[in-house]
Design brief:
single chain; mainly alpha; two-stranded antiparallel sheet; 71% helix
Length: 233
Amino acid sequence: MFSRTIDWRSVATLSVLGILLLLLWRTPIVYPLRLLTVFFHELSHGLAAIVTGGSIVGIQIVPAEGGLCVTTGGMPFLIASAGYLGSLLWGGAILIAAARVKRDRILTVILGLILFAVTLYAMRPLLTFGMLFGTIASLAFIAIGLYLPDPANDFLLKLIGLTSCLYAPADVFSDILARPGLPSDAHILAEITGIPSILWGLLWLGISLPVAGWFLIEACRRNGYPTRESISS
C-alpha cells in the first residue's frame, strides 16, 4: 500500500490562501466568493428537496449575502439541515478535486456549466440579482477554464473550496449563535422538532469544524502513488 504523506507545499499554499482570505474577508475582492458559498448553500436545500421527493420552486440570492430556496414536497427536516453542511461539502469536494486532478481547467468548466444550468433552471424571478450573479459567475468560470492554464484554474478552485470550508462554520456562528434572533435554518428545525435553534447551531458547528479540518488535511495529502525515484530504486 502506498503511503499518503502530507504535501507541505500544499500546506503552505492553503495556509497563505487562508490568511489572505481572512485579511480580505470583508473586502470586494472576496465578496464574489462569499456569494458563491451562498449559492452552494441554497442549492443544497434544493438538492435535498429533490432527493427526498420534492422539487425546487425557486432560488433567490441578494446582494447582502442572503438567500432563499423555496421548495415544495420532500422532507422538511432534511431540506432545512442541508444548507450549511451542504455548502461545506461543496467546498470540500472542490478543494480535494483541485488537489487530486491535474486537468483543473476541465473542473472549472464543469463548475461553470453546473452554475449556468442551476441559474437557468432555478433562479426566480428571472430579472434579479441572483440571475445576474449566476450568469456572470458561470460564464466567467467557463471562460477561465477554456483560456487560462491549469495552474491558474487550480488556484481558483482551491480559493473557492477554501472559502466555502471557512464560510460554513463562520456562517453558523454568525447567523445562529452570535445573533440567535435572526431567522435561519435552525429556526425552521426548531419549529419542526421543538429543539431550540441554538442547540442546532451548536450541533452544526460541532460537525462543520472537524469536517472542514478533514477536508483541509485530505487536500494536503499526496496522492499516494510511488515517485519515479522510488520505482527506480
